[in-house]
Structures are given as C-alpha cells and as structure tokens.
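Notes from the 1:1 (GR / supervisor)

We went over the backlog. Supervisor wanted to see one worked example end to end before approving the batch request, so GR pasted a single chain during the call. The sequence is below; no edits were made to it. Supervisor asked that the structure be written out right there so they could see what the output format looks like.
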Amino acid sequence: MKIEQARIGILGGGQLGKMLNHTANQWNLALSILDKDASFPAGINAWKFVQGDFRDYQDVLSFGKSLDVLGVEIEHVNIQALHELVGQGVQVHPSPQALEIIKDKFLQNQFYTVHHLPTVSFERFNSKSEIIEAVRMGSVKIPFVQKTRGEGYDGRGVQLVETPADLEELLDAPSIVEPKVAIRKELAVVAARNAKGEIRCYDPVEMVFNDQNMLAFLYAPADIPGQIHDNLIEIAKSTIEAFSICGLLAIEFFWTEDDLLLINEVAPRPHNSGHHTLEYAVTSQFEQHLRGLLNLPLGSTELKGKAAMVNLLGEPRYSGPPHYKGMEDILALDRVHIHLYGKPETRPYRKMGHITVSGPDRESIQEKVNIIQSKFKIVTA
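Structure output shown during the call:
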C-alpha cells in the first residue's frame, strides 16, 4: 500500500482525533473521522468528517468498507461491524478480538492472568447486591475498589469503598472488585508496535490524580529507580505483544509500597499519559500511532527534556460556552504550550484542553504547574 494513497479512518471525533489529524495533515494523508457532529474537536481539521454513530453497526460498516486501515479513538465502538470489516479485507487496529477484551475490565484482567502479566487480584460480580452479600459473608474485605466492566474512563465507573457506609454508593452494574492496593506511585508507559513486530516505548511518566479520580497532571520522565524503569518497559513490551496491537497501547501501572508493578488498565490509542510528547519527545505519540497503524518504521521515543502535562478541566458549577480565564498569565511563562480542544460547551470536570511545560528540574516545573492550576480556569462567559 502506497502511503500517499492510503485511505485511513478513525472511529471517534474528540480531541485525540483532532491531534491525530494534525500529523495526518502534515503528511497529506486522507484521514476520515466518524462521529455524531462535525462541531466535535476533530471536525475542525479533519480531511473528511463523516456524520454517524460509532456504536451503530450500519454506520461503522458503511464508514469502514471503503477504507484500507481503520483505528479507534475510543474503545466503545460496534465490535460486530469491525469483525465484518476484517472479513472484507480492511485492516482494523486494534483487532476486534483485542478490543473486545480491552473494553471489558473483567476480560482485560483475565487476559493478564492468562498471559502471566502482573495485575491486581480481582473477583467478578453481576450487581451491587452481590457485592454487598459477599462483604456480609466475608469473602470481600473492606477497603476495596469496584470497577464496572464497561464504559469506564476518565474516572467513571470506579467506586472506592473504605467504610461500610460506602457500600450504599456502589454502582449497580456488572463489575469487578479489587482489594485497595497501597500505592507508592501511579505510572504509565505508552508503547508502540507495527505489523513487522517493531516495538518502542516512551519513558514512564508519573501521574497525579484529582478527587474525581481524573488525571490532574503528570511528570515525564517519572522519578523512579532504574530497575523499576526497566521492569516497566519490559512489561509494556510483553503486554503490547500479547495483544498484537499495531499502533499505540497506553498502559497504566500501580507501583506498590512493596515494590510490585501491577497493570491497572490499558488503552489501544493515543492517551492522556502521552500528551507531553507533542512538544517534548522526538516523535509525538500521534505521529507514532500513525506509523504503527500504517506499518511504517517507528520514530524515536527519546524525550527532549523534563516535562509535565496539566489537564484543563471545566470548573465545577459551570456549564455552557467556555470562557478561558488566565490565558495571558500562562502565555507569559516560558516553555509553556496551550492546547484547547475546541469543545463548544464546558461542563464540570470535562476535559477541555491541556498544557505542556518544561524546565531544567522538577522544582521549576512544579512551580509552573502550580501557577497553571491556580490561574487558568474554564468557566462560562
């Protein structure tokens, strides 16, 4: 397949699609996007935006049948249509089989167990009442974490139970339950692979979450011992190989107090934990993803320096057309890059953009992170 003639599609038109479009535009690739409304972020700079529902069988089938390569921006797409497209000769990444596993927390954790990849112990439940009964019988011990099997991302579908009173807040859905782990740090590795089997990994990053269980900011590279770094890279390589992913696989880890590295979850696409690579890696994660999807040689994952990424979330109590307070204050800082996703409406804790920063050391970077978090606010006009 000649790259200049490749017909590529992405299911999902959010901010990841928008940033993926940027590299596709640089390479003059015919990258099409499928989503419900062209006002979504990826509609701004798409080569072609097709209006449709990536959860709908017929919409996905119609969109994909004229493509050479089809990828995803979100896991919750119509799997049946992807199987049909593979049968018609379309290259689908990740494969429908891998996607079926990844979109289901139980199947995902079961996959790690079968492939001897380290993860937290877990138990499957069908309802809230089943979990409460297991607690009453003593087979589930408080504290624990409940994760719904599907539809969980950006902190959704996760419930922490630390006291018996918290049982009332359990989510009434098919779930897994994991014991609460004593975590030293939450880390992530973005790995890339192409069909030739070439694998490259970015340096691990260190993630800091807010009280909504959403990523607030990250540091790159993570401040970790060399052996932990090497072990993370080896696990990441084994994981992307086990799934046979082409493109990116972002892998989130718990580094526990007793020095275990446990896989928390994965995402087969560009990811929040790789946004710093836009300015501060030789090859951005979005370019790397296209390289993997198209079976091109993978680019260098070397970092250009110490960096951080700060998520820009909608302020609580504000819903409506966004107003960005503090832009001038942030633009007055050195080595700062603002990315606004162009979403037409802000909501409490909605991801509206991110900012990447760099500096000579962790202290100077943290100072900029603090300024961003105190001065940049997304409210309504």
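Supervisor's comment: The chain has a mean pLDDT of 96.
Batch request approved.
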